[in-house]
């Protein structure tokens, strides 16, 4: 079955009770039971909810995974995956991730005995030297937020599996439409559904998809025990969002390429980070493991003052955190999404005070370019 067919039909069976074509929002906290231990598979809404279940089947199918679980946010999905490791275990974390992911490791997980080291996972030799006897997991984002570094997921998986470690990939930036980490050898995929999967900037959510039965059981157990579940209404919104994922991603990709090329030739722009540009260091790898480049572009303006002028000078693009919505969003990683990353680490990665990130929306691309041009000028 093709991607769009799966996106529209997986989990979206007509409602058993009424035949409703659109999965209803089952806004209930509990379910009437016919007798002790006799029920329709739904006992309590933290544990099971039909709207959430429909979404879980849907996104799992899109990621070619057997199991999927929807969470209250991308961060709660990531935190739950980290419950697969225990005190005394070591995790290799990609050196550039969303700032919140770094913050979870550096400010919270370390206090629970989880050891971690940062590694440039785009360099497999460097990654290889980061393994320790107690390394149980490698956590990567590709392309990274915000400097768009690409990691060879097949290569990382081979290295990790040979050492008994699992690979987790945060697939938020490309969505399963452009990249399927499980097909590339990864064990677990995480998402912030807040972004492309929902796609309309009106819901916060997260997702975990995987194939291993025992790990899936544990994720489900933790999801129920901790209770960071996606609400029925948000599940409905994301389920509606994924139906148009393919057409939206095509439009983001088309506009992303145009904007990246425009910025690359602009005299006020010093550097552009976009894997679709031939100048990107991992352009060939991106072409191989992705089926598109997406709509995330970052660019260097040279100074905080320049960045501020662009960010405050745009009229069509909205200054704000987040990404992946139909509208173009522009942000300043150093003070916004990556403020919790130490300055020295940020600068080393290219997350400078002059770096601007744009989530290219699906408006008419001439309008986006005109807006960026007037702000840059
Ligand atoms: O915001 P939340 O739904 O909890 O997702 C966290 C998260 C996880 N992974 C990646 C790659 C992300 O980009 C995010 C959230 N990012 C932003 C809010 C942002 O503007 O980059």
Describe the fold and architecture.
This protein is of the alpha/beta class and 377 residues long. It folds into two domains: 241 residues, Type I PLP-dependent aspartate aminotransferase-like (Major domain) (Aspartate Aminotransferase, domain 2); 131 residues, Aspartate Aminotransferase, domain 1 (Alpha-Beta Complex). The strands form two sheets. The protein has a seven-stranded mixed sheet with strand order 1-7-6-5-4-2-3, sandwiched between helices. Strand 4, helix 6 and strand 5 form a beta-alpha-beta unit. Helix 1 runs antiparallel to helix 2. The radius of gyration is 21 Å and the shape is globular. It starts with a helix and ends with a helix. 51% of the residues are buried. The model has no long low-confidence stretch (mean pLDDT 98). The structure holds ligand P1T.
């Amino acid at each position: 079955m093709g991607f769009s067919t799966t996106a529209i039909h997986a989990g979206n069976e007509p409602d058993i009770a009424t035949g409703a074509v659109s999965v209803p929002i089952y806004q209930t906290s509990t379910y009437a039971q016919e007798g002790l231990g006799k029920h329709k598979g739904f006992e309590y809404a933290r544990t099971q909810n039909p709207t959430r279940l429909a979404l879980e089947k849907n996104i799992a199918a899109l990621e070619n995974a057997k199991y999927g679980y929807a969470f209250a946010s991308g961060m709660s999905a990531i935190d739950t995956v980290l419950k697969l490791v225990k005190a005394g275990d070591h995790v290799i974390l990609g050196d550039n991730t969303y700032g919140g992911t770094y913050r979870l490791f550096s400010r919270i997980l370390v206090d629970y005995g989880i050891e971690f080291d940062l590694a440039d996972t785009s360099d497999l030799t460097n990654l290889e030297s980061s393994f320790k006897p107690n390394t149980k997991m490698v956590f990567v984002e590709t392309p990274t937020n915000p400097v768009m570094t690409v990691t060879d997921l097949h290569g990382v998986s081979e290295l990790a599996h040979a050492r008994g470690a699992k690979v987790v990939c945060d697939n938020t930036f490309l969505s399963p439409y452009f990249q399927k980490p499980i097909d590339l050898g990864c064990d677990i995929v995480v998402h912030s559904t807040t972004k492309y999967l929902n796609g309309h900037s009106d819901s916060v959510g997260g997702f975990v998809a995987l194939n291993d039965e025992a790990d899936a059981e544990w994720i489900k157990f933790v999801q129920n025990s901790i209770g960071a579940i996606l609400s029925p209404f948000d599940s409905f919104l994301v389920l509606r969002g994924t139906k148009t994922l393919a057409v939206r991603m095509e439009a983001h990709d088309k506009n992303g390429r145009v904007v990246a090329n425009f910025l690359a030739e602009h005299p006020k722009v010093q550097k552009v980070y976009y894997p679709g540009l031939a100048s990107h260091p991992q352009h060939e790898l991106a072409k191989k493991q992705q089926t598109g480049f997406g709509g995330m572009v970052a660019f260097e303006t040279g100074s905080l003052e320049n960045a501020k002028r662009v960010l405050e000078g745009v009229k069509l693009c909205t200054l704000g955190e987040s990404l992946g919505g139909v509208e173009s969003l522009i942000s300043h990683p150093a003070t916004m999404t990556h403020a919790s990353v130490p300055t020295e680490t940020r600068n080393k990665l290219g997350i400078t005070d002059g770096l601007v990130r744009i989530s290219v929306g699906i408006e008419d691309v001439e309008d986006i370019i005109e807006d960026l041009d007037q702000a840059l000028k």
